[in-house]
Design brief:
This protein has one domain (3-140). It is built from 4 helices and no strands. Helix 1 packs antiparallel against helix 4 (117-140), helix 2 (37-77) packs antiparallel against helix 3 and helix 3 (84-111) runs antiparallel to helix 4 (117-140). With 146 residues, the protein is mainly α. The protein binds protoporphyrin IX containing FE. Protoporphyrin IX containing FE is lined by residues 7, 10-11, 14, 17-18, 62-63, 66-67, 69-70, 73, 89, 93, 96, 99, 131, 134-135, 138.
Length: 146
């Protein structure tokens, strides 16, 4: 039975990903006024370099384990608009794919050297809002039924 291992892996990767985004939105953005433009850009460049080394593995494992969990859930419940779990899980997956698109686009922009400070900030706020909705959906799909 692979499900519990995939679920724990999924949760640990989600914690790591959400933790990084939380740090960037609430800690780093709060430091922006005190650090000055040049220092902030240097910190962001360092963070992006580190993220490019670690995050592809975290995100890869998050989506691989998620794909397996999703496959098992849809196999059990079926894909139907009349099934609340199937609807909420589909919205969660759509939001997760949007996060993936943000992530790939940010990594490519950083690789090409065109990740400005403003784009860095906007990307993180958008990804953070996605994450909050994903976590709410991940839990409510088992409790809110119609
Ligand atoms: C940004 C990407 C994602 C994040 C942050 C995320 C986050 C989470 C979280 C926090 C949970 C609750 C785990 C728990 O409390 O036990 C969860 C559950 C789940 N996720 Fe994801 N997820 C993501 C992507 C995906 C994808 C792409 C899929 C499917 C293709 C998926 C399928 C599932 C399923 C089926 C569950 C329910 C597992 C269960 O409780 O039995 N997730 N996710």
């Amino acid at each position: 039975m692979l499900y519990p291992y995939a679920l724990i892996t999924h949760l640990l990767c989600a914690i790591a990903f959400i933790g990084v985004v939380f740090f960037e939105v609430f800690m780093l953005e709060g430091m922006r006024p005190h650090l000055g433009h040049a220092t902030m850009e240097a910190v962001e460049a360092g963070l992006v370099r580190r993220a490019r080394q670690i995050m592809p593995y975290v995100v890869g494992l998050l989506f691989l384990s998620g794909a397996y969990l999703g496959y098992e859930q849809f196999s059990a419940s079926g894909l139907s608009w009349s099934n609340s779990l199937s609807v909420l899980l589909s919205i969660k997956i759509a939001l997760a794919l949007s996060v993936l698109a943000h992530f790939i686009s940010a990594m490519r922009a950083a690789g090409a050297g065109c990740m400005s400070s403003d784009r860095f900030r906007r990307t993180h706020i958008s990804v953070f809002i996605h994450m909050v909705l994903i976590v709410i959906l991940a839990k409510s799909m088992f409790y809110f039924t119609w």
